[in-house]
Design goal:
The complex is a heterodimer of chains A (287) and B (443). Chain A contains 10 helices and 8 strands. Chain A is an alpha+beta fold and 287 residues long. Chain A folds into 2 domains: 56 residues, Electron transport complex subunit B, putative Fe-S cluster (3-methyladenine DNA Glycosylase II, Chain A, domain 3), CATH 1.10.15.40; 168 residues, Alpha-Beta Plaits (2-Layer Sandwich), CATH 3.30.70. In chain A, the strands form 4 sheets. Chain A has a two-stranded antiparallel ribbon with strand order 1-4. Chain A has a two-stranded antiparallel sheet with strand order 2-3. In chain A, strands 5-8 form a two-stranded antiparallel ribbon. The relative contact order of chain A is 0.11. A 6-stranded mixed beta sheet of chain B has the order 1-14-13-17-15-16. A 4-stranded antiparallel beta sheet of chain B has the order 2-8-7-4, with no helix packed on it. In chain B, strands 11-10-9-12 form a 4-stranded parallel beta sheet, sandwiched between helices. Classes of the chains: A alpha+beta (287), B alpha/beta (443).
């Protein structure tokens, strides 16, 4: 055999073995000790990397859980209760019972209730429209309808209804909070889904005096306090001419909805009933 | 070879329809609405209340914080209310509602037409007078003038620049003021020079106003420290950094103010207001406003009392509301479209421009073709296509590193873009968010 070939093979073998040895030594000297439970927890998560938990992806969330060693205030909204229970059993912790939440849109300033008084010709962005003017309907607190919430959602759960100009949330919502952050007027709120998926909330954010609010929108909260007086559970407060229903105190009795003179309280997923008050009811969101 | 700024610039049509229209006073209507926020900084605090009777020149509100200004009544009348009213911002903001009964002035104001060229006050007293008379920058930014005259420790003013450029298309209020009140403007310039302790002043005027250049040169010739310099017509020559660069060759460093290169820039209208304040004890309660547009019957320059609704000006100039698409406060490049004609004129309103339906429509937005016209046009040497994109995708750290805060919002990029992309709109939002981030970082 040609000796050159032999030398070549031996040289390469030596280099290969030498590199292998260096790599092995480096790998064991600089090995990062990681808790093996992080891998198990990470595997149990949905792998959507959506950020709904508030962390940078599923692995980051797994690290956070294992490092803090408790499940307080930690929830994977996509996986929900099921996944959290599984993680709890892996780590030997108490399984938390979180109330399922959903995004609600607290504005009913549709084209019909709050007709356009101006024509907006700018960038199709709520953030930009907000710094430019009050909004086509004239209410400085109302929905601008440019769709920043729709674009922020990675679950196809919120869409602007072209007939009303308002966003509508469907049952794909995982309560990740992206739309809440995207809305420059803080109109979207995360509220508990409620028993039988029913909830009641005020569909208005306007803090102006009642007469002024009404000028721009028929479905405005005028701060009349009728709902506060009617509620037997002290669930409603009015401040800055605007009512707010505390979801933890509300028992879904619907008495406030009946007495509101501007129909700005919305009851979601209830069976329809005979209305004694006149004028249009707010948009019935059925999801 | 006329002087000009080196980087960027665009050439929109000048459309100075009202250039030959002399300044006419316009009577205020029965009710005026004086917004409390008419300068940069904190809104003024009212010192009057409902039911008070006021004379023209009486103080309505004071400026409490460092950057804020005084507000005075433009009319004699009764305070009807202090409540929210729609203003240029597109929102309802606090304003003083005054029922107008006449134009009786506060006794301390010198109402004579006599030209007073002798300056009797000293530097510090001048600044105090300017503060008490509510003088703010009338170029549009409404920065309180007395604050600008207080040079920070460690910096030195060498040169006063008077901005008579008026590069914004359509607007002619500064032009007419220079033609009709040249000696008052020169005196105002001398007052500012004394307050700053400088011996040199340059009045910069764009070359499309040869009559103003000649007239002011003639009156400035008696004062060796004051020079009038014609400039090449290019937008935005009136931007203070561009003006400094053209007149002195000096470039204001990124993120810094003109005082860094020893310059102070004041609008020609501000110089006039300083003359009125110091020589005549007359507070800033009125200003020249151009009313113009293709379908405006008589493009005019009115002397308007602050608080007069825009509708009064439009009616006097004669407009056709059915043909109007947008009513803009300011010019077509940097102005803002108004929500309705009830909006009151404030200290920063240099003009009202009526665009017809066709002129108001924005062309359809198309994808960026990477032509870099925006980069060529930017007078601050920025990359608008990049800053607009990173603002849109909310990468504000990249925006901050790309010097987005140096943007002067002149609109040259959006004007020149062949795809009609809303570059400035995105950049404005980016600037807002970056400023918020910086504020929370420093807390």
């Amino acid at each position: 055999m040609n000796p050159s070939i032999l030398y070549a093979v031996i040289t390469l073998a030596v280099i290969g073995a030498g590199s292998g040895a260096i790599l092995y030594w480096v790998a064991s000297k600089f090995k990062v000790e990681e808790d093996p439970r992080i891998d198990t927890v990470a595997e149990a998560l949905p792998q959507a990397n959506c950020g709904g938990c508030g962390y940078a992806g599923c692995r980051n969330f797994a690290e956070a859980i294992v490092k803090t060693g408790s499940l307080d205030n930690l929830l994977c909204p996509v996986g929900g209760d099921e996944v959290m229970k599984r993680i709890a059993s892996i780590l030997g912790l108490e399984a938390p019972t979180m109330q399922p939440m959903i995004a609600v849109v607290r504005c009913n300033g549709s084209f019909q209730n709050s007709p356009s008084k101006f024509h907006y010709d700018g960038v199709k962005s709520c953030a930009f429209a907000h710094i430019t003017f009050t909004g086509e309907g004239g209410c400085p607190f109302g929905c601008l309808g440019q769709g920043d919430c729709e674009r922020a959602c990675s679950f196809d759960a919120i869409h602007i209804n072209p007939k009303t100009g308002l966003p509508e949330v469907n049952d794909k919502c995982t309560a990740c909070g992206a739309c809440v952050k995207a809305c420059p007027r803080n109109i979207i709120e995360m509220r508990p889904k409620g028993k039988k998926d029913r909830r009641i909330f005020i569909t208005c954010m306007n803090q102006e005096k009642g007469a002024i609010a009404r000028k721009n929108c028929e479905a405005a909260c005028i701060g009349c306090n009728k709902c506060v007086k009617e509620c037997r559970f002290d669930a409603i407060t009015v401040s800055n001419n605007l009512a707010y229903i505390d979801p933890h105190k509300c028992t879904l009795c619907r008495k406030c909805v009946e007495v509101c003179p501007t129909n700005c309280i919305l009851e979601v997923n209830f069976p329809p009933r005979k209305r004694t008050t006149q004028s249009d009811s707010p948009a019935e969101i059925t999801a | 070879m006329l002087k000009t700024f080196k980087k960027g610039g665009v050439h929109p049509h000048e459309n100075k329809f009202s250039a030959n229209s002399p300044i006419q006073p316009i009577d205020p209507p029965q009710k005026i609405f004086v917004p409390l926020s008419q300068s940069l900084g904190a809104p003024s605090k009212p010192v009057v209340k409902k039911g008070d009777e006021v004379k023209a020149g009486d103080i309505l509100a004071t400026g409490e914080s460092f950057i804020s200004s005084y507000l005075h009544s433009p009319v004699s009348g009764k305070i009807e209310n202090i409540d929210d009213f729609i203003d240029v911002s597109g929102y309802r903001k606090p304003a003083i509602f005054i029922e107008v009964t006449g134009s009786e002035w506060n006794a301390s104001v010198n109402l004579s037409d006599e030209l007073k060229e002798d300056i009797t006050l000293e530097g510090a007293s001048i600044i105090q007078k300017v503060k008490e008379m509510g003088v703010v920058g009338l170029g549009g930014a409404t920065f309180p003038t007395h604050v600008k005259l207080m040079i920070p420790q460690g910096k030195k003013a060498e040169l006063l620049i008077i901005n008579g450029v008026e590069c914004e298309p359509y607007l002619t209020s500064d032009h007419r003021l220079m033609l009709e009140k040249p000696r008052e403007i020169i005196t105002g310039t001398r007052i500012l020079m004394k307050a700053l302790g400088v011996t040199r002043a340059i009045i910069g005027i764009e070359n499309n106003k040869p009559d103003a250049i000649n007239l002011l040169s003639k009156h400035a010739s008696s004062y060796p420290g004051i020079e009038v310099c014609p400039l090449r017509v290019k937008y935005p020559q009136g931007g203070e950094k561009q003006l400094i660069q053209a007149l002195t060759g000096r470039e204001v460093p990124s993120g810094k103010l003109p005082i860094e290169v020893g310059c102070i820039v004041q609008n020609v209208g501000t110089a006039f207001a300083v003359y009125q304040a110091v020589q005549k004890n007359r507070p800033l309660v009125e200003r020249v406003v151009t009313v113009t547009g293709t379908n405006v019957l008589h493009p005019s320059n009115f002397l308007v009392k602050i608080g007069t609704p825009v509708s009064a000006l439009l009616e006097k100039a004669g407009w056709q509301p059915e043909k109007a698409g947008k009513v803009i406060a300011g010019g077509p490049m940097m102005g803002k479209a108004l929500l309705n004609a009830d909006v009151p004129i404030v200290k920063g309103t240099s003009g009202i421009l009526v665009l017809n339906g066709k002129e108001s429509l924005r062309p359809k937005v198309q994808p960026c073709i990477r032509c870099a016209q925006c980069v060529s046009a930017c007078p601050m040497g920025l990359e608008p296509y990049y800053l607009a994109r990173v603002s849109e995708v909310e990468k504000f750290d990249l925006a901050e590193n790309g010097a987005i805060l140096d943007c002067i919002e002149c609109g040259s990029c959006q004007y020149i873009c062949p795809s009609a992309r809303p570059l400035l709109d995105h950049i404005r939002l980016g600037k807002l968010k970056v400023n918020q981030i910086i504020r929370s970082r420093n807390q």
